[in-house]
Each structure stands twice: as structure tokens, then as C-alpha cells.
Design brief:
It is built from 13 helices and 21 strands. Helix 3 runs parallel beside helix 6 and helix 3 crosses helix 13. It is globular, with a radius of gyration of 24 Å.
Length: about 525
């Protein structure tokens, strides 16, 4: 017999297995000597609203029966090596999950990735951090797994209507993720675990007969009568297939320019831009968990989510935290020489000294009147210019411009900067020389206001590091709401973050699956004669 209990536990009872078992048995009235009783957690979330932190847990109790597997789904990947191909550009979450779903539906995915596999990619990341060398084809954004591989690996999303979140999580578990991601309300994998997981996803694709082409850059499209027949790669190879799922991520500027040059409709899109802010993790724990010293041995590193409406020159815009990384570190995420971009990530244990988060301002198209002549590339050009200015102010290396928080609000250049997790180093500047006035002024208002929500957050023992500019794509590639196909170009399926339809690993993965399903549903009866190589 199976039953569920809703429990409010102490951190020790929730995170220490022995204490958890004892707490459930006591609550359920199960004697210690009761035979054939299995107890486990099915759901867990932290409630830190009161002075005493509690953990809400859904416990499952199985008496006199074997427990059902926590992972409920099983995935079958048939052999597709001789099947009809479809093309997927980009091996990030959207591309990889589009490939897996294509295999399930009996089609052969050809995944084209401009960057390297996860193992080879590491050398290029080391070169950015140590030698300040940015490889435009292999970096924190480009390469196997996309930007998500070297991130915190957050696996929660608000996009619940776009697909089956549980299915995505179970595919991750089937490829090596811990079952804890099926239990935690805000699951994450960790940057140290993600490369192994991404390699396992790739191996499933290869084992089924799919192809993954690394260091292969798409430079042109094969278009006939407004129908996308295939792609041309930088090495001259032409690849054709059933259709093209375009899942290149939010930083593939060359793809946006290619689309525009080919006369394929794209649109300028609102996005967000700001800074990374770094506190000590101990301070954030003290604020969030109401503890005097540290969080203790059981609670995980605390996180936060902040939003504040601000007004500048009579116009209201939101300022909000983005991709908060507890116990994490800040990394250089530029995709071209001559620019500075910062992002955050955390290892699975989230045990670093620092907490960092993007703190960004919503940028609407009407905020950029000086760029309107650029049409659909207006937001992209604005974004790029701010990144280039950050590079110049940082000293024309990957050293990032930075300023202490209170100094920034008071318009005072910091005499000294704090220790940081950002490996290439920091340079003290007045961030007003980096950030446009409408961004800087809104950040000032928000930082002061955030202290009313998290007392102690606004402090000169925190610093802002610039710039956080790749929160989402500055360009949208339009598509039909139902069919997901481009409104003008047949067989083109814009997908994931780069196309403007996702905002993280899970939502991108769900979008990849949906695009594969829609492409196959529409064109499975019109298989091209050519398989691979026009």
C-alpha cells in the first residue's frame, strides 16, 4: 500500500536521510521494527519566510509493496541511420532535445555545431580565463551543450504550458543526472556535472544513428521558391534534409545577419542589460536564512529573486535579478574579441565563497531611438556597442570593469575592489562610463530599493561587474504560433533562446521537442530524395 504525507521539517530532518526516516515514521505512527516499509521524498521546497527556516516535504510511504521507480518514463530510441534526415543547427539544449525527439519519431537528426565537443571546449575556456584569448567559435556560449553546459544548470521554468517539464527532467536522469532533480522544487545540476550529461545525450544520438558535426559552421541557406532545402557549411559541404530547426542560441550574431541578408524576416526584440552583482555567500545566507553566522551543515546555499519597478525620464521599466548563482563564480562569456560579457555559474555543491546574480534592466525598442534605422538589428547593435565599451574600459583585455555597489550609487569610483570569483580579474572604473544613462539610473534606484526587501543587500561589501548583456536574444525570428514554422520560409523552424522562444535549459529543451514534432508532422510524407550532401 502506498500513501503520501505532507510534512514541515527542520533542515536536518529534510536533508539528513536518517533524521528524515525517523521524522516520517514518528509522524506516520510507523514503529521502527515495522517490516517491508520504504520511505522516500517525492517533493521538497524550502520555506525561509519566517525566522525559523522550514522545509516542506511530500513523503511517499510504501508498506508491504515494492516502491515504484521515481523515474516513471522510459525512452526508446530506434535505429535511424538509414532514415530520412532533418537538419538541426546548434547543439544546445534545444538542438539536442530536438534531435532526441526526432529519433523517437523515426527520423535521422543531423546536428550541426560550430563549436567543439565538451572536452575539447575546455581548453578554449581556459584560454579566455588565463590568457584573455576569445575564440569566436569555441567559448562559454558556443560548443556542445551551448551556454547551458557551463552554467548553474538550473532546471526550473515558468513555461509550464509549453511542454512536459517532468519528461525533460526524466530524460536528464536517464542520462546520468541525480534523481534529486525530480524532487527539488528548484532543481539544478551544476557546471561540474553538465559536461558529462551533455556527452551522454550526444552518445544516445550517435548510438541511434544520428549525426553530430562539430566545428562545422553554417554560412548559407539553400533556398528555392521560399522553401528551405538545406544549408551550406563553411567547408563547402551542402547538407539537405526534411527541414531545418534553427537552434543557434542567443549569441549567434552571424546567423541573424545571414537571415537579414537573405531577406528572411526577423524582428528586433526587447531584451535586458545590466551587470553581475557579487556578494559573499555568507551575507546572502544571513539575510535569507536569518542566521547570525552561517547557514549550518544542512541548508543549501541560499538564493534570491528580486524585481523593482523604476522610473527614468517619466518612463517606467523593471529591474530584476537574473540567473542567480549561489556559491558560484562569474565567467567571461564574450563570443568575439573586443567585447566583455559576464555570466554566472555554480558547481553542483554550490559551495563557493561568493553569490552572484545578473541584475538587469528591461530594454524596450522605444528606449533605442538612435538605432531605429537599423531595423531588426537595432537591439543587437546596441547590445554589441555596450559590450565593446566595457572591453575598452576594462583595459582591452578580458579584465572586467567593476565598482563597489554603494560607490556606484553615489557616483564615486572605488579606491579598491573586493576579492572576486571572476578569474580574468577586475578593473576599478566608474560604471557610468560603461552603462547608458537609462540603465545606470534604473540600477541605482533598484539597489537602494532592494535593501528594503533584503536588509543588508545594499552594501559596499558587494560589487557590480560589467556587463551582463546576454540574458536573452535581442532578435526574434518569427514563427506561426501553432505550426512553429517561419511565416514566409517553408521548412524553417526557429527554435529556442536564439529565436526568442525560450529562457533557460528546460524551456529550450521543450521548445526543441515541439519543433521536431511539428516539422515531422507536416513534412513526413514529403521526404527529399537526397539524404546527405547535395
Amino acid at each position: 500500500m502506498k500513501r503520501e504525507l505532507q510534512l514541515t521539517l527542520t533542515p536536518e530532518e529534510a536533508y539528513d536521510e536518517r533524521a528524515f526516516q525517523e521524522a516520517v515514521r514518528k509522524k506516520a505512527g510507523i514503529p521502527p521494527e515495522a517490516p517491508q516499509t520504504y520511505i522516500r521524498q517525492a517533493r521538497r521546497s524550502i520555506d525561509a519566510r519566517s525566522r525559523q527556516v522550514k522545509v516542506n516535504v511530500t513523503a511517499e510511504i510504501f508498506a508491504n509493496e515494492a516502491p515504484s521507480p521515481l523515474r516513471q518514463l522510459h525512452f526508446t530510441y530506434p535505429k535511424v541511420s538509414g532514415k530520412s534526415p532533418l537538419i538541426i543547427i546548434g547543439a544546445g539544449p534545444a538542438g539536442l532535445f530536438a534531435a532526441l525527439r526526432s529519433i523517437e519519431l523515426g527520423f535521422k537528426p543531423i546536428v550541426i555545431e560550430r563549436g567543439k565537443d565538451v572536452r575539447a571546449r575546455r581548453r578554449d575556456l581556459a584560454a579566455i580565463n588565463k590568457d584573455h584569448i576569445v575564440n569566436p567559435e569555441s567559448n562559454y556560449c558556443f560548443g556542445e551543450g551551448g551556454a547551458g553546459t557551463y552554467s548553474d544548470g538550473k532546471l526550473y521554468t515558468r513555461s509550464k504550458k509549453r511542454g512536459d517539464i517532468r519528461r525533460i527532467l526524466e530524460i536528464f536522469v536517464a542520462h546520468g543526472a541525480k534523481e534529486d532533480i525530480l524532487v527539488d522544487a528548484h532543481p539544478h545540476i551544476g557546471t561540474n556535472k553538465l559536461p558529462i550529461l551533455v556527452a551522454a545525450l550526444r552518445q544516445t544520438i550517435l548510438d541511434a544513428g544520428g549525426e553530430v558535426l562539430f566545428e562545422t559552421k553554417v554560412v548559407d541557406f539553400i533556398l528555392e521558391n521560399q522553401e528551405l532545402k538545406g544549408v551550406v557549411c563553411e567547408n563547402g559541404e551542402k547538407i539537405t534534409g526534411l527541414g531545418v530547426i534553427l537552434a543557434t542560441g542567443h549569441s549567434a550574431r552571424d546567423i541573424f545577419h545571414l537571415l537579414h541578408r537573405k531577406g528572411i524576416q526577423i524582428e528586433a526584440k526587447p531584451f535586458a542589460l545590466g551587470v553581475r552583482i557579487e556578494h559573499s555567500q555568507q551575507l546572502i545566507d544571513q539575510i535569507q536564512y536569518h542566521c547570525k553566522v552561517d547557514r549550518g551543515p544542512y541548508l543549501p546555499a541560499s538564493s534570491y529573486s528580486l524585481v523593482q519597478q523604476t522610473t527614468f525620464e517619466g518612463v517606467q521599466r523593471g529591474v530584476f535579478s537574473f540567473c542567480m548563482c549561489p556559491g558560484g563564480f562569474i565567467v567571461p562569456s564574450a563570443t568575439s574579441p573586443g567585447e566583455i560579457v559576464v555570466n554566472g555559474m555554480s558547481p553542483s555543491r554550490r559551495d563557493g565563497r561568493f553569490a552572484n546574480s545578473g541584475m538587469v534592466v528591461a530594454v524596450e525598442l522605444e528606449d533605442l531611438p538612435g538605432y531605429s534605422h537599423l531595423g531588426p538589428l537595432a537591439s543587437l547593435q546596441f547590445q554589441q556597442e555596450v559590450e565593446q565599451r566595457a572591453w575598452e574600459m576594462g583595459g582591452k583585455t578580458q579584465t572586467a570593469p567593476a565598482q563597489r555597489m554603494v560607490d556606484f550609487v553615489n557616483r564615486k569610483q572605488s579606491d579598491t575592489l573586493l576579492p572576486t570569483s571572476y578569474q580574468p580579474g577586475l578593473r576599478s572604473v566608474e560604471m557610468d562610463q560603461v552603462l547608458p544613462p537609462f540603465i545606470a539610473e534604473r540600477l541605482r534606484q533598484a539597489f537602494v530599493a532592494f535593501d528594503r526587501k533584503m536588509k543588508g543587500y545594499y552594501t559596499n561589501e558587494a560589487q557590480i561587474i560589467g556587463v551582463e548583456s546576454r540574458t536573452s536574444s535581442p532578435v526574434r525570428i518569427p514563427r506561426d504560433k501553432e505550426s512553429l514554422e517561419h511565416p514566409e520560409i517553408s521548412r524553417l523552424y526557429p527554435c529556442g533562446e536564439g529565436a526568442g522562444y525560450a529562457g533557460g535549459i528546460v524551456s529550450a529543451a521543450m521548445d526543441g521537442e515541439r519543433c521536431a514534432e511539428q516539422l515531422i508532422a507536416k513534412y513526413k510524407t514529403t521526404v527529399p530524395n537526397q539524404l546527405h550532401g547535395l
